[in-house]
Each structure stands twice: as C-alpha cells, then as structure tokens.
Design brief:
Helices cover 36% and strands 35% of the residues. It has 10 helices and 19 strands. α5 (234-251) packs across α7 and α8 packs across α9. The longest helix is centred in the C-terminal third of the chain and has 43 residues, at 296-338. The chain starts with a strand and ends with a helix.
C-alpha cells in the first residue's frame, strides 16, 4: 500500500475519482490517498476559470443533483432559449440554445440570464447597448455570432427581413437581433438623393446613324417598403427603364432633330420613366445627357458641313459690307459733285494723309502755288 499527499488550494477544487468513477468534490485542504486494491486519482480545477469542462458533466447533472446544487451553477437551455452569461456583473458570453453546462461556484460570480427566442427576434435596447462597442471591453464577448448587430445611419433606414419576409423599417439607431432558429438580415437603404449613370449606350437614330450616349439621372426613394415589396432590386429596375427611355427618345428621331434640340432627349426620357415608376415608391428628380459621341466618319462629314455653312455666311457678310461701302462712296461722290467746298475739304484731308507719309517736302513758288497746282477747282 502506498500513500499519496494531495493539496487543494483555496482557488481550486478537486474531483476524487476511484477506479475512474466519481466519488466526491474536494474542498481546499490537504488529503491523503491510499493506493491499495483501488486506484484513486484527484483532478484539480482552477475555479478562476469557472466553466467546468469534463466528461463527467452529464453524469453529475443526471445522477448527482445534490453535488451540482452545492458546487456548481447549473445551466440547461431548451431549443427555444438563449443565455447571457455574466461574470461578476460583466457580460462575457452568449449561450446558444440547448446548452448544458456547469460553472464552479465560489470565486467568480457567474449568472446566466435566459431569453425566450419565441417572444421576439429583437433584443431589448439595454441589452443591445451592452453588446455594442466591443473595443471598450477588457475581454470580448464570445458567441456574438448568434446575434446580428446593426447600426442605421440618420440618412437612411434599415429593411428588416426575417426568414425572407419583410418585417418593418428600422429608423436611425443601433439594433440587435437573435439569429438562433431564424434567418435575420437587415439591408441599409439610403434616403438621400442618389445618382445613377447610364453609360456607353449604342443607339441607332431614325436615319440609321449610330450614336453613343452617356446619361446621368438623380433619384430617391419615396416609399421604401413598396419599392422592395414589388422590386427585387429597385436601382437595377430604374437603370433598365432609363435605357428603354433613352432608346425611345433617340430611335424615333433623326440626327438633325437631335442636334437641333438636344433637350428633347431629357424631356422624353423623363416623361417615359416617370410614368413607368408610378406606384413603385421611386421618384426621378432629374435626367441629363452628358455626352453624344458620333462615329469618326460622321464627325468628318459634319465638320465639312459646318465649315461650308460658315464659309457661306462669311461670303454673305463680305458681300453685304462691300455693298454698304460702295453705297457710302456713291453718296459721298454725290455730295462733292454738288458742293465744291466739300470737295476742297476732301482734297485737303487727302493731302494731309499724304504729307504724313513723307519725311521731306520741297516747296517752289509758295504754299498757295502748291495747293493751286495740285488741285484745280472748276
């Protein structure tokens, strides 16, 4: 026979096993084990880690209720219950349904709050706040995968779906929902004015000219629930309607009509898409064509047409100016014909301009002789 000494510290508990079977729980102290015909063994557990993880858990819960009540906190959750475990008042773990565990009593105050999952999918606001901001906790809350946490900004709403069915809209704030036993999803929807670009649309005009157009539209939600009840993806539906409206506006008009009135595309697309969106909870605020790209050969032809037109306009203006100048000269000649003094003044003006271009003038016979010699009046 051999004797073995075992010491259980104050922060420990021991499980005495005799021949592999549970015998009792050892409190702090010193124990002597006698090894004879039976084999005795003591397993020590630090109760600073209160979770009791051992193959004997189910046995103790089933066959040793007195021991369990005295030494452990017993947790048995049904399929419709979840647990919130706290240690010394701090939330540390979310327990899934059907959890069966034992926690040591004594050093750490362990409490488990049971929540009925059938009552509501949403967690109370106070509990949701306790789960939020994990970065401010000394240790992370385990089991948070069983809870969906959502923060809805003030510029939008959240579309709550439970098991594929739209339940309600969530306003701005923080929310948490149980994911156990149900499929919960929240889609954030922006209520602000949004832009949608329809680019690279190749469309033939009525006179068979291929154009590439880029269109920009602004839109917003007016009724989110109605939009998502009738449309799987409202933004994609709006994009297709803008495509159809653009083709209707361009395909029924010639290139000249489009170039003469570029705003007709915006007007036609706006009118057609607005009528198609009625009843879908979407509102089209504005539509504008950003670019109209012509084929390379069509650009050359149009450039030649524009050049010819501008040349013709320039010729008309030149002829008009020449006619006006000739008419002015004719009127001046008539005035001089009937008025010798006016003719004399014109001659002096011409002489002055000529004199400005001459550096040196030699006068013979006096200035009067020069003037009388140059100009003779009738």
């Amino acid at each position: 026979m051999t004797i073995k000494r075992v010491t259980v510290k104050k922060n420990e508990r021991g499980i005495l096993l005799r021949n592999g079977d549970f015998e009792r729980v050892l409190q702090p102290g010193t124990y002597w084990l006698f090894a004879g015909l039976d084999t005795s063994k003591v397993e020590l557990f630090a109760i600073s880690q209160p979770a009791f993880v051992h193959p004997l858990t189910d046995y103790l819960m089933a066959k040793e209720p007195a021991v369990v009540d005295a030494e452990f906190l017993r947790v048995e959750l049904t399929e419709h219950e979840a647990g919130l475990r706290t240690e010394n008042g701090v939330l540390v773990e979310v327990l899934p349904p059907a959890t069966r565990r034992l926690y040591w009593r004594g050093l750490v105050d362990v409490q488990v709050e049971v929540a009925d999952l059938r009552a509501s999918a949403e967690l109370p606001a106070a509990l949701a706040a306790r789960l939020a901001q994990p970065q401010l906790r000394p240790r992370a809350v385990t089991g948070r995968a069983g809870v969906l946490q959502v923060e809805v900004p003030e510029t939008g709403v959240g579309l709550l779906r439970v098991d594929g069915k739209v339940e309600r809209l969530l306003t701005a704030g923080s929310y948490a929902f149980w994911k156990f036993g149900r499929n919960v999803a929240v889609e954030l929807v922006d209520l602000r004015l949004q832009a949608l670009e329809v680019t690279g649309q190749e469309i033939l005009t009525r006179d068979k000219v291929a154009l590439r157009l880029n269109l920009s539209a602004t839109w917003r939600y007016t009724d989110v629930l109605r939009a998502f009840e009738q449309l799987a993806k409202p933004a994609d539906h709006l994009y297709r309607e803008l495509q159809f409206g653009l083709r209707a506006a361009v395909g029924t008009r010639t290139l000249d009509e489009l170039l003469e009135n570029k705003s007709v595309i915006d007007e036609v697309v706006t009118a057609q898409v607005t009528s198609k969106l009625a009843g879908y909870g979407l509102q089209l605020d504005g539509v504008g064509v950003k670019d109209i790209v012509l084929p390379g050969e069509m650009k050359t032809i149009l450039a030649q047409v524009v050049e010819a037109g501008k040349s013709a306009e320039a010729n008309v203006i030149r002829r008009r100016e020449e006619t006006a100048a000739t008419r002015s000269l004719l009127n001046t000649a008539k005035v001089m014909e009937d008025n010798p003094v006016a003719l004399r003044l014109k001659e002096l003006e011409t002489l002055e301009r000529v004199a400005e271009r001459i550096d040196k003038i030699s006068v013979f016979g006096g200035l009067d002789q020069v003037l009388n010699g140059l100009v003779k009046l009738r």
